[in-house]
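Practice problem 4.
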């Protein structure tokens, strides 16, 4: 081997760099262990300990030293499934951005186009393009985007804006740029909010131009707080309010009107005496106040007064909102009140007559107007800080701009004169509605007070300082993983990695003897390089990523197997050891097959990386890095050991006494039995398709259909069927509960309100889940049940949400990923082999494998003891199967091409048979490696990836079969008779 010294130099250099990079991870883990030991089971104490040593040196390399903060930032990043934390994908509303750019235009064509774009949006489509299409269809040339009442408004005019003379195509370019700027603005606002929150190693990135932003917060534990922080638009507004005596008659009239159309089924709750009830007492018809006969007023659970119209249970707000939206109810408002906005306060706790704590929200009526514009908006606030009011309660102080100070002085002066109130509204929720008792407030400084805790005032000040989002940011996908579950995943990954590594090493030594030891040493170095690269470039290690690494153990020795098998063939032909090694490492030896096999593997891995999200990207990334590092170590590092063996005059047979004659002189007629394999495979495909499309279907997970899933741990074993019935009754919609591993752990899935976005909906689902399951726990509060913390043993260990819109995108991406992988491989093989029949045979085998795996999942998912859902992990498994199936097939096809070019005697069928038989040892060896590794992961890898591993396990077995009994027969049957005759005549003449 030429340039051996240079290869050694780079290998040593890479090894040293990898060790250097991984040192930070070892030191950081050591410090964390010390912090845990110091803090015991107190996570707050642990966090304070780590914060206190942030600037303290913890690593001294002699020539330089690093503090804990520096070490922490250089360590190998772990994904949420290993570290615990929260992952969300936020969708910035392009519709809201367009409304803002059009200055909330009332143009009917514009608004119909927005509605049509929303209704017609399909998976993986761009909302903006759909809007442009809808506008063109609705306007039919009669209305332009550059109309003054649409985008050529005053705020959009000027340099780089829209003028009246622009064509629709020109306006579209401006709008696309403006939307892009809005998304960038949202990204910066979210980045600033997260930085102020103080999460370690947060990851935030834009996902293309879709308006979606990925946020990962490792170690974050307070689920509801994080979601509020991210999803809150921070739209701060100041509204004048109506007093209860001003709208009391309206509420009475609304109640009377509703009585005619509503039937109150539940027993009414007593109304506390207040100014509203006084109005009711004066009514002539006292029957109106009869309990159980007032659809609106019977829902009141507490008194109002001043700007508060009454207190209600949070669960009733949706019904009351629906009442106020009815045209016949809105028509009851006085003429000067027709634009009134009814809004709610943030929830607060009350004590009822029995001394129980109940949750309530206050109802307010804001003085709206035609344009729905507040008296003052939060854009005039220049600074905000968390503080305490005169009573020592948490509050937020604000400083306004000079313009804001002037408006605020006028607003407070009017409130003082009219003895009215000013509602401070954030994201359509009233935080407080103070009156003004000391005259107009000058200077622009004010304070938000209310029922806050210290954490809420800090977050509120942070989001106000970071600025408001340019549009609503809805959480369309989220995953919450507890740290205890993350540690369990790490343990499972470590066990499967070690066992898998040991099995591969033992088999290589058993089968190839001394050469197997060389392959194992190369494998060790390969793992060092792989982890070193991930640490160096800041890549994230996930649980599927560990699966990718363990799979690399199986594939890393594949190149060695191909080379060793070729070297054995050369030795059998009488070549010396040196010549056999040189020949086996040559292009016409094993190298061409290795390159072809790994190119197809890289192509499928790249497609998986492009179309995958989150942990699936981690799996694809480790797979791709592993391919590169394994090729380097297998081809170059193992070769160094072999060459040293040759120089030392030691014997090397690439086998042991037991295995030296395995698969030698093996002559099986694979082509002869093709009719039987065709019939068998056809039956399997038919049965699979019938099951998929007509009988069982597939168990589509929330990734494909949308929904919420919770991994819930109970104190004792529970009956999944009973829990499912109880939750279905609580949610009012079917809820599925399946045992996950042990009988005290369930995977709960619901589609309740999955089409509705917003933090309030997510919190409502969490509350319903807790209330329905709380009877199974002793002394477990809502916070302990929902939020994550170190050492958590019961409650929600993991939760995920996939919105309806993103699930459609995931499904579309999955289809394109599988079809794209087949198409790319078809093209590559056609170019490489210069005949489409090779591509057809390979793709036929792959299609067979995919249908086979789908059929197994369709037929078995109802009774298997582990989950067999169609989700992103399953698609990753399918693409991995495609890659490995191609790998096997290409090795056989390369040998066929070699025999055709060479002087192999016989008919075309005989040449193909000889090709299969002479590569059988490599095919079965590699497949056995993969099966051993996958079985290890299936047994030890943990419940969460068991279905994912099972798909690959079935796929590898089926892929090996199809490479031998489908791909090559299809090739034989599609090669033309003329081509076969030409090949046979050439070989006769040779």
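Answer key:
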């Amino acid at each position: 081997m030429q340039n051996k010294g240079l290869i050694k130099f780079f290998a040593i250099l890479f090894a040293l760099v990898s060790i250097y990079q991984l040192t930070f991870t070892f030191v950081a883990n050591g410090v964390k262990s010390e912090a845990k030991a110091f803090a015991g089971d107190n996570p707050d104490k642990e966090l304070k300990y780590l914060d206190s040593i942030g600037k303290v040196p913890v690593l001294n390399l002699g020539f330089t030293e690093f503090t804990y903060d520096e070490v922490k930032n250089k360590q190998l990043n772990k994904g949420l499934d290993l570290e615990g934390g929260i992952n969300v994908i936020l969708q910035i509303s392009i519709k809201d951005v367009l409304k803002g750019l059009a200055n909330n235009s009332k143009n009917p064509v514009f608004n119909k186009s927005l509605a049509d774009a929303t209704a017609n949006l399909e998976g993986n489509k761009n909302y903006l393009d759909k809007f442009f299409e809808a506008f063109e269809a609705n306007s039919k040339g009669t209305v332009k985007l550059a109309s003054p009442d649409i985008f050529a408004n005053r705020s959009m005019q000027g340099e780089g804006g829209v003028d009246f003379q622009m064509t629709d195509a020109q306006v579209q370019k401006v709008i696309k740029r403006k939307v892009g700027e809005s998304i960038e603005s949202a990204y910066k606002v979210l980045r600033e909010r997260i930085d102020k929150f103080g999460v370690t190693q947060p990851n935030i990135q834009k996902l293309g131009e879709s308006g979606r932003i990925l946020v990962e917060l490792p170690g974050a534990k307070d689920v509801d707080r994080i979601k509020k922080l991210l999803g809150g638009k921070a739209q701060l507004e100041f509204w004048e309010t109506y007093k209860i005596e001003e709208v009391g008659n309206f509420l009475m009239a609304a109640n009377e009107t509703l009585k005619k159309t509503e039937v109150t089924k539940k027993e009414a709750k007593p109304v506390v005496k207040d100014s509203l009830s006084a109005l009711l007492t004066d009514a002539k018809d006292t029957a109106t106040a009869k309990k159980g006969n007032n659809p609106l007023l019977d829902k009141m659970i507490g008194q109002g007064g001043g700007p508060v119209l009454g207190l209600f249970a949070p669960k009733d707000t949706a019904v009351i909102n629906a009442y106020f939206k009815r045209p016949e109810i809105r028509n009851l408002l006085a003429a000067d009140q027709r634009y009134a906005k009814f809004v709610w306060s943030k929830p607060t706790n009350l004590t009822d007559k029995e001394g129980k704590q109940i949750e309530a929200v206050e109802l307010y009526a804001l003085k709206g107007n035609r344009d729905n514009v507040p008296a003052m908006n939060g854009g005039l606030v220049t600074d905000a800080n968390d503080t305490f009011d005169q009573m020592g309660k948490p509050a937020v102080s604000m400083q306004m701009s000079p313009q804001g100070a002037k408006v605020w002085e006028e607003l407070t002066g009017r409130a003082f004169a009219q003895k009215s109130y000013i509602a401070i509204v954030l994201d359509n929720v009233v935080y407080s509605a103070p009156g003004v008792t000391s005259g107009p407030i000058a200077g622009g400084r004010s304070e938000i007070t209310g029922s806050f805790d210290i954490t809420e005032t800090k977050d509120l000040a942070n989001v106000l300082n970071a600025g408001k989002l340019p549009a609503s940011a809805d959480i369309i996908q989220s995953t919450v993983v507890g740290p205890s579950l993350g540690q369990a995943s790490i343990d499972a990954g470590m066990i499967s990695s070690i066992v898998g590594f040991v099995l591969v090493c033992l088999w290589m030594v058993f089968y190839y003897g001394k050469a197997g030891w060389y392959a194992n040493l190369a494998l060790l170095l390969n793992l060092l390089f792989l982890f070193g690269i991930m640490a160096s470039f800041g890549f994230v290690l996930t649980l599927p990523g560990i699966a990718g690494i363990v799979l690399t153990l199986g594939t890393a020795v594949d190149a060695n197997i191909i080379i060793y098998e070729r070297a054995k063939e050369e030795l059998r032909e009488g070549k010396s050891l040196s010549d056999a090694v040189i020949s086996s490492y040559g292009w016409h030896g094993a190298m061409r097959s290795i390159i072809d096999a790994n190119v197809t593997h890289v192509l499928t891995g790249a497609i998986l990386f492009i179309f995958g999200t989150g942990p699936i990207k981690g799996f694809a990334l480790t797979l791709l890095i592993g391919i590169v590092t394994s090729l380097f170590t297998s081809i170059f590092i193992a070769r160094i050991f072999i060459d040293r063996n040759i120089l030392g005059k030691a014997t090397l047979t690439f086998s042991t006494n037991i295995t030296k004659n395995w698969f030698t002189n093996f002559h099986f007629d694979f082509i002869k039995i093709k009719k039987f394999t065709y019939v068998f495979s056809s039956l399997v495909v038919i049965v699979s398709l019938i099951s998929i499309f007509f009988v069982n279907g597939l168990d589509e997970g929330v990734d494909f259909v949308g929904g919420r899933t919770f991994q819930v741990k109970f104190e004792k074993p529970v009956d999944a069927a009973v829990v499912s019935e109880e939750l279905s009754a609580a949610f009012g919609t079917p809820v599925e509960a399946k045992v996950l591993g042990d009988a005290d752990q369930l995977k709960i899935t619901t589609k309740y309100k999955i089409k509705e976005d917003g933090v309030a909906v997510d919190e409502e689902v969490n509350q319903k889940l807790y209330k329905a399951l709380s009877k199974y726990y002793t002394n477990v509060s809502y916070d302990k049940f929902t939020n994550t913390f170190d050492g958590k043993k019961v409650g929600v260990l993991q939760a995920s949400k996939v919105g309806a819109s993103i699930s459609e995108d995931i499904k579309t991406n999955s289809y394109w990923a599988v079809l794209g992988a087949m198409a790319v491989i078809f093209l590559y093989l056609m170019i490489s082999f210069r005949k489409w029949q090779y591509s057809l045979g390979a793709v036929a085998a792959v299609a067979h494998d995919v249908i086979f795996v789908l059929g197994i999942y369709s037929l078995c998912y109802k009774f298997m003891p582990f989950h067999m859902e169609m989700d992103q992990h399953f698609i990753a498994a399918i693409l991995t199967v495609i890659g490995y199936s191609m790998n096997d097939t290409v090795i056989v096809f390369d040998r066929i091409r070699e025999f055709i070019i060479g002087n192999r005697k016989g008919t075309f069928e005989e040449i193909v048979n000889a090709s299969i038989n002479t590569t059988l040892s490599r095919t079965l060896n590699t497949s056995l490696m993969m099966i051993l590794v996958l079985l290890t992961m299936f047994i030890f890898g943990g419940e969460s990836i068991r279905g994912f591993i099972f798909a690959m396990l079935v796929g590898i077995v089926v892929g090996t079969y199809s490479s031998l009994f489908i791909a090559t027969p299809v090739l034989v049957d599609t090669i033309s008779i003329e081509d076969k005759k030409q090949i046979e005549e050439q070989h006769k003449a040779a």
